[in-house]
Specification:
Pfam families: FCH (PF00611)
Distance between the termini: 120 Å
Number of strands: 0
Organism: Mola mola (Ocean sunfish)
Protein name: F-BAR domain-containing protein
Number of domains: 2
Shape: rod-shaped
Domain F-BAR: 15-291
Helix content: over 70%
Keywords: Coiled coil
CATH topology of the largest domain: Substrate Binding Domain Of Dnak, Chain:A, Domain 2
CATH class of the largest domain: Mainly Alpha
Radius of gyration: 55 Å
Length: 427
């Protein structure tokens, strides 16, 4: 048995069938209202889902066309050497086809089953409601018959109790007459005979009323059992069956439509994940030195070192190497010492600047986390301050890279070579 049925508490004293039947009528009316509300909710749900899928199909179609136009716009302009954008352009057509297929699925294949489901749901609900009305009419008919049999039984039983009381009163009168004095014997015999005839008459009447009362009681008990059986069958079986009939095919159709929608979405998501993984691999393979070497290799003639400047002596001068007297040697050694001291001072400063450059707080992309969150933006300096710091770091980086590092080392090597040459010359 289902657990949705609750028996009402037994009433103390006589059963007021009129009140109970009135409550049953109100309950049956409320049941029809609940079924109507349930149908309205299911219909609204199907209609909303249909509208959502139709609008989703339109949006997916617009998005697919936009992706296709975007890919066509840049495909003719971008060379394959631009790996990141080229991979994006390769993803766009696939993503466009996926969204176009999802649009077709939402606009056509999924809406039609929902429309059919709405039609037969309303049709089955109407039939179930008609059957429910018939069953409720049967319950009301059984309660009316029960009420009629109950009243008839009460009426006959009241008559029987009254007649039985009269009969007992006559029997008491007869006993009193039998105990009278002997001198009134003749008159007593006449009265006794009269009471005896009346007693027989009353006994026959009581028996007749008792028979009618028994028939009325039996009819009442049978109608009571029939009414209770009808109520039990309706509440424990018929209601659940009617609801199941009204919902037949609803959950199955809705589940199939949503499963098809999920399949389309999963397929689109899988293709998108594949493209994103390829793009991630490309991003992970970015190498500044490799790009620099590739640029120099592709433009070798532009960036190749020109021929060395030849030594052109003046008017027969045959000396082609650096040479100096003792005074010049001291000057060169002093210059070498100054350059070496300067390099030792510049090296820590260069390391500190490079550390600042790679600090995350001054990284232009540090404001965006890997997950795309912008919560940490409030913890970073203001945009103007970040821009000023970034420009300062760029200037320092260029100066350090071009002047303090390469130029100083180059000068150091040059002076060292010159001093070594001087040593050779003096020897």
């Amino acid at each position: 048995m289902t657990s949705h049925v609750r028996y009402r508490k037994d009433r103390v004293g006589l059963v007021d069938y009129d009140t109970q039947i009135k409550e049953v009528r109100c309950q049956l009316v409320d049941q029809l209202k609940v079924l109507d509300v349930q149908l309205e909710q299911k219909s609204q749900q199907l209609q909303d889902l249909t509208d959502y899928l139709r609008r989703r199909g339109e949006i997916e179609s617009e998005y697919a066309r936009s992706l296709e136009k975007l890919a066509e716009r840049f495909t003719s302009r971008i060379k394959r050497l631009d790996i990141i954008l080229w991979n994006q352009l390769q993803i766009c057509p696939v993503e466009s086809r996926d969204h176009s297929g999802l649009s077709e699925s939402c606009s056509n294949f999924l809406i039609q089953p929902l429309t059919q489901c709405l039609e037969y749901t309303q049709r089955l609900a109407k039939k179930s409601k008609d059957i429910c009305l018939q069953l409720q009419d049967g319950i009301l008919k059984a309660t009316v018959e029960l009420q009629t049999a109950w009243r008839t039984y009460y009426q006959y039983h009241s008559d029987y109790v009254y007649a039985e009381g009269k009969l007992k009163e006559a029997e008491k009168q007869e006993e009193k007459q039998k105990q009278s004095a002997a001198k009134k014997l003749e008159r007593l015999i006449e009265k006794v005979n009269g009471y005896t005839l009346m007693q027989y008459f009353r006994q026959g009447k009581v028996q007749d009323i008792y028979l009618k009362c028994s028939k009325a009681r039996n009819e009442y008990i049978l109608n009571l059992a029939a009414a209770n059986a009808t109520m039990k069958k309706y509440y424990f079986q018929d209601i659940s069956t009617l609801i199941d009939c009204a919902d037949a095919g609803y959950h199955l159709s809705l589940g199939q439509v949503m499963q098809a929608y999920l399949s389309s979405r999963w397929r689109t998501q899988q293709n998108l994940d594949t493209g994103l993984q390829q793009l991630q691999s490309t991003v992970a393979g970015l190498d500044q030195r490799q790009d620099r070497d590739g640029l120099l290799q592709d433009n070798y003639n532009t960036f190749c070192m020109p021929l060395r400047f030849p030594y052109q002596p003046h008017d027969g001068d045959q000396v082609s190497e650096v040479c100096a007297e003792c005074e010049m040697r001291c000057e060169l050694e002093t210059r070498f010492t100054q350059i070496q001291t300067r390099l030792k001072a510049v090296a820590p400063e260069t390391e500190e600047v490079m550390f600042i450059i790679y600090d995350n707080d001054l990284d232009p992309g540090s404001g965006l986390s890997q997950e795309g969150s912008t919560e940490n933006l409030t913890l970073k300096p203001s945009m103007a301050r970040r821009k000023a710091n970034l420009q300062e770091v760029e200037n320092i980086y260029i100066i350090v890279s071009l002047f303090f590092d390469d130029l100083m080392i180059y000068n150091f090597d040059l002076q060292l070579v010159n001093i070594q040459k001087l040593d050779i010359g003096w020897r």
